[in-house]
Each structure stands twice: as structure tokens, then as C-alpha cells.
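Recall that a protein's primary structure is simply its ordered list of amino acids. Everything else, from secondary elements to tertiary packing, is in principle encoded there. The following example makes that idea concrete.
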Amino acid sequence: MKKLFLTLVILLGFLFQITPTSATTIQEVEYPNNQGKSFISEDEFYNQLDKDMYQEYKNAAYSIRRKIPYKEVPDAELSFNRKTKNNCQDKMSLQTPHIHPERQVYFFASFSQNEKEEFHKFIVVDAETKTRLLEGNSFHRYENPYRN
């Protein structure tokens, strides 16, 4: 009886073994892992960046320039939003299977504020191809809690 049961288990294992199909094969990523490559610093990259693509606010109260793995972009954006008290955005979700999580990218963000308005913006640029991967911005009316 034990032999019959073991044989049945083994046969069922072979019958229901998952075989690769076009739906289950690993999709080739458009932006593969490049963590072993060396790229210029974030400041050098920013200075060479086309200012039509991204430019920090002239009177920025706070700006970030970082070179990070793609998987850290949500945390970098969340940190920027917390430091600038931008409550309109939650931590982003990266639903981009064509970008490897270890892909090196540049994350730039800038915040400006005056007596009436707040401006936030960010961009994520691929370190190797210099392609814009993500970007966002927001605008808020500002109510100064210390104003009489």
C-alpha cells in the first residue's frame, strides 16, 4: 500500500509539474542590472543634465541629488515628501517590471515655497542611458500658521 501511495505521489508530481510557457518565462528587462558599472557623481550629472528635462527651483528651500538603485526610489520620494511636508503623496509603488531593482538611477527633487504657495517636483533619470524614467510635481496653496 505504501508503494502504491508513493508511486501515485511521484506520478502526480510529474503530471502537475509547471512547464514554462510564454506567460511564465522570465521577461527580458529593458533596463538590466548595472550595479557593477561606475557613473559620475550626482552633482556632475545634474550640471550636465538638459535643463529642459529638469531644473531645480531657483529659490529652492530644499533640493536632493542622489544616485541610488531603482528599488530605493519610493523611499527617496517618501523622505523628500516628509521633509517638505508634502502630504498629498504617499510612497509610490514601482510597477515597472522592465527596470531591474538594482539599476542605478539619479533621483532629483526640489521644493520651493513663498508666502502663498508650495511647489514640489522630482525626476528619476537612468544613469546609463540618461532616459527619464519617472517624474512628478505638485502645487499647494500655503497657509502660514504663524501669520497674524
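The two ends are 88 Å apart (CA to CA). DSSP finds three helices and four strands in the chain.
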